[in-house]
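Colleagues,

For the teaching module next term, I've prepared a clean inverse folding example: a structure given as tokens, and then the sequence designed for it. I'd like students to try predicting residues themselves before seeing the answer, so please don't circulate the second half yet.
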């Protein structure tokens, strides 16, 4: 897990237990005095503190994550009844104060460990359950006031940033096959259907397992309507080749959607790798593994 004391962004705010205690005392006094423990995790945008046994406090570390607090508070209660897995349950939304500049929130604690092939009883079952979750999310009615996220565009929208990231990865990977794979992804036809609900950031760390099975999906800051290919990224960032095929079969996606999903997995990992290579080694390792999986499968 990443070291909570390491700054991952040049302009992030410092969040420590003393600050969280002051916020709790000032804005939700009934929870004052509960034990407060910082949670070490691979997340990049939020600091998390367990509050007693049954609550967790989540605070944005960086400005771009601040709007996600109200997004989750608004949409998670509306989505949860339609989904087969647990999602975070917002209990309280705090306001800036005590020197802290952003909104923040308290959620009910979700038991579990990071979901992965090493923490579940069967990789094929993991693939099927994740596919079932994605399909259930797609079926949720899409209201006109649905939120927007950073991953509701196309692969072409990411071209400049991805090429810049490939250049920034000099010394971290061989750029030639990566660039070839990215350029192949850009030739895939764009999604022509209606935008669908997507989580936007399905990856290790945002998926929990409990009792050997996939149990919860967390970190919904990327929630938006967009190309369903975006939520295929776990095929390469989480699953191995055999379970990946089961995932694809359960979702019954066409070749173009599968290829766009592969392109999304490649682009997201390329952009994150040089940014977090020194400050979040666990996430950087996930990015490297994802890039390898994409290149091994080929376009």
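(Answer key — instructors only)
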């Amino acid at each position: 897990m990443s070291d909570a004391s390491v700054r991952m962004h040049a302009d992030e705010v410092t969040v420590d237990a003393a600050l969280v205690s002051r916020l709790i005392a000032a804005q939700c006094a009934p929870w004052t005095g509960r034990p407060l423990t910082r949670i070490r995790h691979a997340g990049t945008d939020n600091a998390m503190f367990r509050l007693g046994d049954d609550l967790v406090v989540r605070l944005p570390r960086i400005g771009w994550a601040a709007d996600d607090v109200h997004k989750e508070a608004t949409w998670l209660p509306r989505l949860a009844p339609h989904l087969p897995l647990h999602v975070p349950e917002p209990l309280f939304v705090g306001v800036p104060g005590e020197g802290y500049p952003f909104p923040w929130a308290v959620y009910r604690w979700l038991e579990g460990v990071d979901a992965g092939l090493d923490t579940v009883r069967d990789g094929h079952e993991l693939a099927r359950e994740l596919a079932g979750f994605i399909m259930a999310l797609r079926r949720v009615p899409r209201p006109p006031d649905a939120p927007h996220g950073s991953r509701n565009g196309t692969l072409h929208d990411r071209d400049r940033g991805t090429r810049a990231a490939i250049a920034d990865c000099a010394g971290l990977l061989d750029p030639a096959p990566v660039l070839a794979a990215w350029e192949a992804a850009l030739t895939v036809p764009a999604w022509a259907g209606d935008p669908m609900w997507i989580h936007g950031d399905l990856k290790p760390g945002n998926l929990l397992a409990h009792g050997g099975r996939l149990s919860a999906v967390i970190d919904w800051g990327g929630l938006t309507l967009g190309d369903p290919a975006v939520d295929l990224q776990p095929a390469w960032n989480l699953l191995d080749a055999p379970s990946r095929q089961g995932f694809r079969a359960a979702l019954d996606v066409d070749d173009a959607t599968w290829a766009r999903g592969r392109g999304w997995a490649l682009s997201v990992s390329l952009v994150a790798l040089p940014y977090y290579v020194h400050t979040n080694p666990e996430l950087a390792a996930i990015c490297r593994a994802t890039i390898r999986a994409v290149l091994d499968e080929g376009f």
